[in-house]
Specification:
Layout lengths: L2 H12 L1 H8 L12 H4 L2 H11 L17 H11 L8 H7 L1 E3 L9 E6 L2 E10 L2 E4 L8 E4 L5 E5 L2
Antiparallel strand pairs: 1-6, 2-3, 2-6, 3-4, 4-5
């Protein structure tokens, strides 16, 4: 079938706008569809928000938008992604679905613990790294996971 005979059949089936958009490399959403940016999973959006806060100073108890403690950063990032998390790292751990290290994905929460107490949290960025707000005098940054005493949680 030649391109000339193929175009009229496309026009009759898909409509002029669809063919024109396809011809110029555009996209068209069906009514009620969600754009790719809005269809992005909350975990991915939260990870992007956390990364956008690179360099923001640590402040105990701070929840953003310019200063954060560890759980303030994770709660802020997930709030921007449309999910509500409680305030502290321990409460966030209690609220997530616990997963194994082998099941972790970007955007999952990484909880640092001592015994049964969770004392720090960050957002998994992949390749063994997290975005987190470390401690007083430091800033939000990407860092390799430094401990084996970690647990993983997925925000529901």
């Amino acid at each position: 079938m030649s391109a000339q005979t193929h175009v009229p059949s496309l026009l009759s089936r898909a409509g002029t706008a669809s063919v024109l958009l396809a011809a110029v490399g555009g996209t068209m959403l069906a009514p009620g569809a969600v754009s790719e940016a809005h269809a992005q999973p909350a975990a991915t959006r939260a990870l992007d928000v956390a990364a956008s806060k690179k360099g923001a100073p640590y402040k105990y108890g701070a929840t953003g938008p310019h200063r954060f403690d560890c759980s303030g950063l994770t709660a802020f990032a997930y709030k921007k992604a449309g999910k509500k998390l409680p305030r502290t790292a321990q409460q966030q751990y209690n609220r997530t679905r616990h997963i194994s290290a082998s099941s972790r994905r970007q955007g999952d929460l990484v909880f640092f613990h001592y015994g049964r107490s969770v004392y720090h949290v960050g957002i998994y960025a992949g390749r063994g790294k997290i975005w987190h707000s470390p401690k007083s005098g430091q800033v939000v940054r990407l860092q390799r996971i430094w401990s084996k005493s970690v647990l993983y949680g997925r925000v529901r």
